[in-house]
C-alpha cells in the first residue's frame, strides 16, 4: 500500500481535477507483477495500467489501490470490471472515494462479485495524498494552502518594503515544488506591485494544466508592464476587481490577455466557490500580509506552511506575516495539528493543518 501511495503521488500536476491514484498488483505468491498510476490525459486508470502489465499473473492475486475503484461508466469503463475480468480475488484500499458517483459503490460491486475487500490500511496517509481532491469533492471549493516566508521574528519585509530574499535557495526550490502541486496561486495587489512576481511553476516537472495566477486587485492597480500582465497570453492571469473599478483599465488588461472578474474581493467564501466552479481543485496563497490575514480571519485556510529564516528584521514598521483583524483571545488562535518540521538549508519549514478546519 505504501508503494501504491508512492505511485499515486507521481500523478501530481497531471490529474486535477481528478484524484491521485496508484495501484500495485501482487500475484498469489506475494510477488509484485504490475504497477500503475493515473494520468488524466492517458485516459487509462491506475488499475487498468497495472493489470495490463500483470496479464495472467494477476489471476487469483491482490490489487492494492490507493483509492476506492470506481464502478460507473465515466471517461473510462469501470475499474471494478477490469479487476474482476483479470481474476483479482482480493482488493486492499485505504479510503473510500467521496465522489457521489463512486462512494461505496466500487467496494459494493467487488464484494457482490465475491472479491475480498479490505478498507483502512494507511488511511491517514492516503487522505493526505488526496487532501486537495477530497476537500474539493466534499465542499465544491478549492483546498487552500497558505505559504509564507518569514524571518525569525515573523517579518515578511523590512520597514522599506524590501523582501528579497528572506529565505535561502533550498526553501525557494521547495516552494516551486509546492506550486507544481497546485492548480492556482493567489496574491494580493500589494505583493503584485511591490515584488512584480512572475508566479510561475519553475519546478521543471510536467503539468497537465497551466498554473492559474490570481490577483486580488479591488481598484485594478496592477501595472500594465508587470510580469504578470506581460505573460498573460502564455500563462493564465485572473484579476479579481471591484465592479466599480476603472473600466478603461479593465479593457486594456483584457486586450493583453488578462481575465478580469468583477467581484467583491473581500467576499472570499464566494470567490472560493467561483474558483471551484472553474474546476480549480487547489489554491496556494502566497500573501502578502493583508491577503493572508483575510484568509485566516475567514477560516478558509486548510493547510499552512511557514518557511522560517534565521534572521531578525526588527522594527515596529516592518511588515508582519499575517494581517487582517486577528483575534481577541489566545484561545481563538488558529491552532495547527499534524505538524511537520523540515530543515531546508539554514531555514526551517513548519507545516500543519488548522485544527478547527481539518476536513
Number of helices: 12
> Secondary-structure element order, as H and E?
HEEHEHEHEHHEEHEHEHEHEHEHEEEE
Strand content: 15-25%
Number of domains: 2
Overall description:
The chain is an alpha/beta fold and 359 residues long. It has two domains: 128 residues, Cytidine Deaminase, domain 2 (3-Layer(aba) Sandwich); 217 residues, Dihydrofolate Reductase, subunit A (3-Layer(aba) Sandwich). It contains twelve helices and 16 strands. The chain starts with a helix and ends in a 5-residue tail after the last strand. The strands form three sheets. It has a nine-stranded mixed β-sheet. Strands 2-1-3-4-5 form a five-stranded mixed β-sheet.
Task: Give the arrangement of secondary structure elements.
Elements lengths: L1 H8 L12 E5 L5 E6 L8 H9 L7 E4 L13 H7 L4 E4 L11 H8 L3 E4 L3 H7 L1 H9 L3 E9 L3 E3 L11 H13 L2 E5 H7 L16 E5 L10 H4 L6 E5 L5 H9 L3 E4 L5 H10 L4 E4 L3 H9 L5 E7 L9 E2 L15 E9 L2 E8 L5
Parallel strand pairs: 3-4, 4-5, 6-12, 6-13, 8-9, 8-12, 9-10, 10-11
Antiparallel strand pairs: 1-2, 1-3, 7-14, 13-16, 15-16
Amino acid at each position: 500500500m505504501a508503494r501504491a501511495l508512492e505511485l499515486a503521488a507521481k500523478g501530481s500536476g497531471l490529474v486535477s481535477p481528478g484524484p491521485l491514484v496508484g495501484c500495485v498488483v501482487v500475484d498469489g505468491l506475494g510477488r509484485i507483477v504490475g504497477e500503475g498510476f493515473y494520468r488524466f490525459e492517458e485516459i487509462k486508470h491506475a488499475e487498468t495500467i497495472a493489470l495490463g502489465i500483470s496479464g495472467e499473473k494477476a489471476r487469483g492475486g491482490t490489487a492494492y489501490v490507493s483509492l476506492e475503484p470506481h464502478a460507473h461508466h465515466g471517461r473510462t469503463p469501470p475499474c471494478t470490471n477490469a479487476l474482476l475480468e483479470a481474476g483479482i480475488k482480493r482488493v486492499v484500499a485505504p479510503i473510500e472515494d467521496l465522489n457521489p458517483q463512486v462512494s461505496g459503490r466500487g467496494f459494493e460491486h467487488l464484494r457482490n462479485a465475491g472479491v475480498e475487500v479490505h478498507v483502512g490500511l494507511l488511511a491517514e496517509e492516503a487522505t493526505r495524498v488526496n487532501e486537495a481532491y477530497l476537500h474539493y469533492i466534499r465542499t465544491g471549493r478549492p483546498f487552500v494552502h497558505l505559504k509564507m516566508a518569514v524571518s525569525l521574528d515573523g517579518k515578511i519585509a523590512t520597514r522599506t518594503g524590501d523582501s528579497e530574499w528572506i529565505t535561502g535557495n533550498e526553501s525557494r526550490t521547495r516552494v516551486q515544488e509546492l506550486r507544481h502541486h497546485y492548480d492556482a496561486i493567489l496574491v494580493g495587489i500589494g505583493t503584485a506591485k511591490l515584488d512584480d512576481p512572475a508566479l510561475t511553476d519553475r519546478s521543471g516537472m510536467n503539468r497537465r494544466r497551466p498554473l492559474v495566477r490570481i490577483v486580488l486587485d479591488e481598484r485594478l492597480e496592477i501595472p500594465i508592464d508587470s510580469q504578470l500582465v506581460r505573460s498573460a497570453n502564455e500563462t493564465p492571469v485572473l484579476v479579481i476587481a471591484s465592479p466599480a473599478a476603472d473600466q478603461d483599465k479593465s479593457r486594456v488588461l483584457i486586450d493583453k490577455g488578462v481575465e478580469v472578474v468583477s467581484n467583491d474581493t473581500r467576499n472570499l467564501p464566494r470567490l472560493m466557490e467561483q474558483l471551484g466552479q472553474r474546476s480549480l481543485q487547489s489554491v496556494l496563497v502566497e500573501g502578502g500580509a493583508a491577503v493572508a490575514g483575510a484568509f485566516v480571519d475567514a477560516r478558509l485556510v486548510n493547510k499552512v506552511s511557514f518557511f522560517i529564516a534565521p534572521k531578525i528584521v526588527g522594527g515596529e514598521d516592518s511588515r508582519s506575516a499575517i494581517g487582517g483583524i486577528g483575534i481577541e483571545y489566545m484561545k481563538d488562535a488558529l491552532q495547527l495539528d499534524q505538524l511537520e518540521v523540515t530543515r531546508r538549508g539554514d531555514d526551517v519549514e513548519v507545516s500543519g493543518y488548522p485544527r478547527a478546519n481539518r476536513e
